[in-house]
Amino acid sequence: MFDDLRDLYQEVILDHGRKPRNFRRLDDPDRTARGDNPMCGDRIELFLKLGADGGIADVAFQGRGCAISTASASLLTELVKGKTAAQAHALADGFRQLAMTGTCPACEAALADDMERLQPLSGVHEFPSRVKCATLAWHTLNAALDGSKETSSE
Fold it and tell me: Would you say 35 and 150 are in contact if contact means Cβ atoms under 8 Å apart?
């Protein structure tokens, strides 16, 4: 059973890595940020379009990186659409904990569905050098939401 689950998780990562969702440049974004992982060369640029209510109306990214980095950015774009900045920050914090430890016991019930969708990336905690690949997009999201233009996984 465990091997089947691991295979499924690998397929999700490979699918998002090969066919990333929302891989494009947004026209006239309200917020952008660039993220860089100098250890392996992963780079991402994230674009956010905010709605009238301040929520994330649209999100997209461009860049280059390994399958884990690309899959993480792709999943991020699917999950933060429609969220407020506070909800997106909470999800980013929860994901970083998941990537570093493999679990997120502190994640509130409101994040349960989103954290379940991010489970395929939970295995990176076993490979500390890959945690930075998985979290780069999330650092970049926080930078964009906070008005920073650049961030690093360092």
Answer: yes
Q: How far apart are CA 91 and CA 110, in angstroms?
A: 10
CA pair distance 14, 80, nearest whole angstrom: 21
Cβ neighbours of residue 1 closer than 8 Å, sequence gap 6 or more? none
- Give the global pTM: 0.92
Per-residue pLDDT of the chain (154 residues; tens, 9 = 90+): 456 656 667 888 999 999 999 999 999 999 999 999 988 899 999 999 999 998 999 999 999 999 999 999 999 999 999 999 999 999 999 999 999 999 888 788 888 999 999 999 999 999 998 999 999 999 999 999 999 888 877 6
Burial class, 118, CB count within 10 angstroms (exposed 0-12 / middle 13-18 / buried 19+)? buried
Q: Per the structure block, which two tokens stand in for 37?
A: 């992982």
CATH of 2-147 given 3.90.1010.10, 1.20.1250.20, 1.10.3720.10, 3.30.565.10: 3.90.1010.10
Strand, helix or coil for residue 44: strand
Residue the block writes with tokens 């992963």: 42
Please report, for the chain, how many H helices and E strands are present, in that order: 5, 4
- Running DSSP on this structure, what letter comes out for residue 97? H
